[in-house]
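User: I'm curious whether this sequence folds into something compact or stays loose and floppy. Could you predict its structure so I can see for myself?
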Amino acid sequence: MSPFAAPRPPWRAGEAETASRREIEVIVARAVPVGAAATLAVVQEIALLATYEPKCTTISLHPTAAGRGRYETAGRLGGVVRWRGWFDYALDDTGFYSHTTTPIGGVAVAGGFRVESRAEGASVVTHYEQYLLPVGTRWLRPLLRRYVVRTMHAELSAIAALAGQIARLPEPRIEILGELRIAHLNQSVIR
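Assistant: Here's the prediction. I'll summarize afterward.
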């Protein structure tokens, strides 16, 4: 897998390149035994986020242009702490990037996915999440980092499973992906 550097988060705009002691950045990659097209289709279908992101239970998309927009999402951290926030997102040819429009409970969040093609119909999906914690909460860094790593591994496993389902579908996959999204969204409402 190639080395990957996450994009500079919005809260560092105009500041030094070095991360603050209040920041957490986690990057996790996973090989997926299907081609990049199926993996990318899952990652770029933003509505599926509530299916594979353990911290997210609902999502409402508000596109503003082709491949850009805003989404409102809500969920629970650790199944306990409720949260709700708005994110701006942008799709590109390798995945997507999003960040909070305003901090959630004082926490700024950014992250995304990058999909790379590999030989013999395989791909690698790299997921990154970046957090800026409020002043006085640095002590939470090790706990939050462990939690984020665990949830990111769960996300990547779910993305690999969904990509496998899509890869097995007959053409045209785009229409079927829409139906799959609706089926998964209906399941996520039930859980």
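Summary: The two ends are 35 Å apart (CA to CA). Residues 141-167 form the longest helix (27 residues).
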